[in-house]
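User: Fold this; tokens only.

Assistant: Input:
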Amino acid sequence: MTNETGRIFREAWIAGVRKHYPGEPKPGYVTPWEETPEWERQAAAAVSGQVREFVSVSDGNTSKLTREQKGRFVALCWIAQIHRLIESPKPGYVADWAELPAWQRETDADVFEAIERGANS
């Protein structure tokens, strides 16, 4: 996965956090790409690639998915990457969709839509 695909994910994540997070987000939530830990960059690039591939194999019909469906896809792909990259992840890193706070669900949907726009352009 390229840095560019991961960067798209990260920039969409930061924008979503700034939009949806109640109050002041933790600094780690809005850390710029250049300062993001390597494992997180790898996960972001992989998930971005998975979304792009999903859009491609769906012939662009992902536009018909609901925001929740889009967000769930990002969240599930992220969980798989966390298990791949971290031996004993924190429970919050691998929380199921229903356990995620509303701001994170909205941000995951924003991430999908940002990657989808790039894949369709």
